[in-house]
Design brief:
The chain is built from 1 helix and 7 strands, in the order E-H-E-E-E-E-E-E. It is mainly beta.
Length: 100
């Protein structure tokens, strides 16, 4: 599985992870719901299970993804400052570009 974290997201995530007392927690990207050919995503700090794959990114942040969910393969985690500040998760490889 693949996951990309942008520079802006890595900066914010590194700050969040540095404040966390439990250093075993990793970033989890999950599907909140899916319909048709695309999904909507969420973020959490969590520990991997046997049903997960831990993906190392080039930003030195490990990401936990559920092995059995094809919508998670190829996700991109970004952090935008406008129009609203916050994380945005898309999956361009599945045709999801965050357009709604």
């Amino acid at each position: 599985m693949k996951c990309k974290i942008t520079r802006n997201a890595a900066k914010k995530l590194s700050e969040i992870l540095a404040q966390e007392e439990d250093k075993d927690l990793k970033l989890r990207v999950y599907v909140t719901h899916s319909h048709g050919s695309h999904a909507h995503y969420g973020l959490a700090l969590d520990k991997p299970t046997d049903n997960d794959e831990v993906v190392s990114t080039d930003k030195e942040i490990d990401v936990v993804l559920a092995k059995d969910n094809e919508f998670l393969d190829g996700v991109v985690v970004d952090y935008l400052y406008v129009p609203e500040e916050g994380f945005v998760i898309t999956n361009p490889s599945k045709g999801n570009h965050g357009d709604h």
